[in-house]
Specification:
The chain has about 130 residues and is mainly α. The chain has one domain (about 5-120). The protein has helices spanning about 5-15, 25-45, 60-90, 105-115. Helix 1 (about 5-15) crosses helix 2 (about 25-45) and helix 2 (about 25-45) packs antiparallel against helix 3. The longest helix has about 30 residues, at about 60-90. The chain is elongated, with a radius of gyration of 17 Å.
């Protein structure tokens, strides 16, 4: 699966979806694409002085506004992708609450996201191989 396909599939087809599974490759392609978009916003904001003390340009304020709207729009698909990835490892989505523990929670979840999918058990849906993408 290509990065753009994983991103558009997660955003447009699975926006409110928290059930089922998400393959490891699809999850990491979506995460990489999301990171690159956020990185582009930060670079644009830095170029136009959005983070500098003093006066801000109108364009830098516009970039910050678009960035904030993007972060709000991507919140549910990101949580859904994380929940489906946890289901693919045969864990409950309640583990997303680990994100509330500063640093340690995010590190623990990142390690869990690296685990391969559990082939047995259809508790969260049928198994599909990441290599098929």
């Amino acid at each position: 699966m290509r990065m753009i396909n994983a991103y558009t599939n997660t955003i447009f087809n699975n926006y409110f979806r928290f059930d089922g599974r998400m393959a490891r490759a699809e999850f990491w392609w979506f995460t990489l694409c999301n990171f690159l978009i956020i990185f582009a916003f930060v670079i644009l904001a830095g170029i136009f002085g959005a983070f500098a003390a003093g006066e801000h340009s109108l364009f830098s304020s516009f970039v910050i506004l678009i960035y904030a709207l993007y972060m709000l729009a991507i919140l549910l698909p990101s949580l859904g992708a994380q929940a489906r990835r946890l289901h693919d490892v045969d864990l409950s989505a309640w583990l997303l609450l680990l994100n509330l523990i500063p640093y340690i929670g995010a590190i623990a979840l990142t390690i869990i996201y690296i685990f391969p999918a559990k082939t047995g058990g259809a508790k969260y849906g049928p198994y599909h191989d990441s290599l098929a993408y």
